[in-house]
Design goal:
- This protein is α+β, with helices and mostly antiparallel strands and 257 residues long.
- It has three domains: 2-145, GAF domain (Beta-Lactamase, 2-Layer Sandwich); 150-200, no CATH class; 204-250, Homeodomain-like (Arc Repressor Mutant, subunit A, Orthogonal Bundle), CATH 1.10.10.60.
- Helix content is 47%, strand content 19%.
- It has helices at 2-16, 39-48, 58-61, 65-72, 120-145, 178-184, 188-193, 197-200, 204-225, 230-237, 241-250; strands at 21-27, 32-36, 76-79, 92-99, 105-113, 150-153, 164-167, 172-176, 195-196.
- A five-stranded antiparallel β-sheet has the order 2-1-5-4-3, with helices on both faces. A four-stranded antiparallel β-sheet has the order 6-7-8-9.
- The longest helix has 26 residues, at 120-145.
Length: 257
């Protein structure tokens, strides 16, 4: 997850670091494990505990950006006096959850500000940036896990733009992001049983074409192995000569010379 997040953390910090914000990636226990911040602000953020290794779970700090985001599993902003402890009321924290390749909660991406003049409009901009970055991290992590598979964007609503599925060489879905699971009704049990990509993507015609292509390939290989001997090919496939002749005619497969 850290490797997958590195680029997004750097880009997010470039966008907000110059206006008194730091960027942190916390694990599922609410402990920041990666951080980006300006040297000029380090002393302030360190004093406030906005540093790697500090515990920001809700059990430890009450209502706060990282801990409450992890508890509710949703994006949110905890602005100044919305924090539970008075020692945290000088900061504003915008946080989004990050889910792993199986759709499980894995981390929280946080932008915290030490500015007292932070406007509501700027908070909204930060919220959009954090949400986009969290989806990029999820997508990059998903691609890294399924590096040998085809990655497809599922045709779902715009709000689920991170709905990715991983498809193997047999056109079976072998993985799906949380957004894809929610939007398409994909479950871990379904993935274990085997799901055809064409069925999941709502394209039955493509599913039929894929099945025809697979059958055509089997017939062609059987004929090639037997040098065009129909009897031998039929025997290897476990079907009759008459059935094989019908299938060869259906797919316009010619016997090799």
């Amino acid at each position: 997850m850290i490797r997958a997040a590195e680029g997004s953390l750097n880009r997010l910090y470039q966008a907000v670091g110059g206006v008194g914000c730091c960027v942190m990636l916390a694990d599922r226990d609410g402990i920041p494990i990666e951080r980006r911040g300006a040297v000029a602000d380090d002393e302030t953020f360190d004093e406030w505990g906005l540093w790697t290794g500090t515990v920001w779970s809700e059990d430890s700090e009450g209502t706060n950006g990282i801990g409450t985001c992890l508890a509710d599993q949703r994006p949110l902003t905890i602005h100044r006096d919305q924090h539970f402890f008075s020692r945290n009321t000088l900061m504003s924290c915008t946080t989004a959850p990050v889910f792993d390749h199986e759709g499980n909660l894995a981390a929280a991406l946080d932008v915290s500000s030490c500015r007292s003049d932070l406007t509501e409009g700027f908070v909204q901009l930060i919220s959009v940036a954090v949400g986009d970055a969290s989806r990029r991290i999820e997508a990059e992590s998903f691609r890294m896990v399924y590096s040998n598979a085809r990655i497809l964007l599922a045709p779902v609503a715009e709000r689920s733009a991170g709905a990715l599925i991983a498809v193997d060489a047999d056109d079976l879905v072998i993985g799906a992001t949380r957004s894809a699971r929610l939007a398409l009704g994909i479950t871990s049990e379904g993935l274990a049983r085997g799901l055809l990509a064409a069925d999941i993507l709502g394209d039955p015609a493509r599913a039929r074409e894929d099945l025809d292509d697979a059958e055509r390939s089997v017939l062609q290989r059987a004929m090639a192995r037997t040098g065009g001997n129909v009897s031998a090919a039929a025997q290897s496939l476990g079907i009759s000569r008459a059935t094989l002749h019908r299938k060869l005619a259906r797919f316009s497969i010619r016997r090799p010379h």
